[in-house]
Design a protein that fits this description.
alpha+beta
Length: 101
């Protein structure tokens, strides 16, 4: 049908988001996690980090979907392996709500 509005398929909406932040080398990095799984990870009941992370990407701003630059990741963490970088985060929850519009 002509005139139909198509929704973008390249957007992934994150729900039940808990943002975990890490400040390193003067830059702030964020990852998106499931809130209840973060609590389990901190209590050592959850062993698989893939169950904790909503996505294995490292962000500069989760709410805006801004990914961290590769050069910044290599400079601060000395690797580009984002799963290994996610394991270095302290997994402290920030109580700020994220609005996804």
């Amino acid at each position: 049908m002509p005139g139909q509005i198509k929704t973008p398929t390249n957007q992934k909406l994150l729900t039940n988001v808990a943002i975990v932040r890490l400040k390193k080398c003067g830059k702030r990095f964020e990852i998106a996690c499931y809130k209840n799984k973060v609590l389990n990870w901190r209590n050592k009941t959850e062993k698989n980090i893939d169950e904790v992370l909503q996505t294995q990407n490292v962000f500069v701003n989760v709410a805006r979907g801004q990914l961290a630059k590769r050069d910044d990741l290599v400079e601060c963490f000395e690797t580009y392996n984002q799963l290994e970088i996610c394991k270095t985060f302290p997994f402290d929850l920030y109580r700020r709500a994220v609005r996804v519009e």
